[in-house]
Amino acid sequence: GAANVGETVAITFTVENVSTNPAYGRWTDAIYLSSDNQWDLGDTLLGRVAHVGDLAANGSYTATLNAALPALKDGNWRVIVRPDLYNEVFEGRITYTENGLNLPPGEANNRVASGAALRVQVPVLTVGQTLSTTLGPEQTQVWKVTVGAGETLRLLLDSSAASGANEVYVRWGDVPTPSLFDAAYSN
Q1: Nearest CA to 120 among 77, 80, 171?
Q2: Residues 79, 170, 125, 66: is their CA dihedral positive or negative?
Q3: Are the C-beta atoms of residues 62 and 14 closer than 8 Å to each other?
Q4: What is the three-class DSSP state of 132?
Q5: In what order do the strands lie in the sheet with 2-4?
Q6: pTM recorded for the entire structure
Q7: For 20-42, what is each residue's pLDDT tens digit?
Q8: Can you tell me the distance from the alpha carbon of 88 to that of 148, in angstroms, rounded to the nearest whole number?
Q9: Cα–Cα distance for residue pair 75/77, rounded to 1 Å
């Protein structure tokens, strides 16, 4: 499917215990978005889902995360679920199953990418047009804008809020952050 940055998406996943031993207690499953099929530290955490309760041998459970898409680039993103993120369960007992694929027990099987990709679209900011929007506290929004060759882009942000602060960052070809940007607000 396709979703816009900032839009809430529902990610449903299944965790399966392929061991002959039950998994006891509680643990946390983490859901990441990855531009490739491999989990790494650069992947974007979409959210966490707490699981409370035992998981029988050869048992499974299905969970859903509802989360707003963070600031991402346009493109296809794979969902990677990492069950038992904090290693609270003995790793010979629990694995992630996607599209019928079962991997041997152990840490590596907790990083299987989804078969289907999520198409992420970034809203367009049109040069010369005013955009009215509302941002809440600690909220981030990203737009893409196309500027003709040899033209200068000037951004103006105005707020009706009585107090608070806003920050604007610009980055060519990628999503800016407070530490990675080509231009930033000056006042």
Answers
A1: 77
A2: positive
A3: yes
A4: coil
A5: 2-4, 113-121, 75-82, 26-34, 44-52
A6: 0.74
A7: 888 888 999 999 999 888 888 88
A8: 53
A9: 6
Give the distance from CA 177 to its chain's centroid.
Answer: 15
Mapped onto helix, strand or coil, the DSSP state of residue 135 is coil
Tell me if 69 sits within 8 A of 3, measured CB to CB.
Answer: yes
Which H or E element spans position 81? Answer: strand 75-82
Structure tokens at 77: 């993103």
- Degrees (nearest 5) of the Cα angle 9, 94, 64? 15
CA-closest candidate to residue 76, choices 117, 33, 127, 17: 117
Residue 36 and residue 78 in contact, taking contact as beta carbons nearer than 8 Å: yes
Instruction: Phi first, then psi: give them for residue 105, nearest 5 degrees.
Output: -60, 160
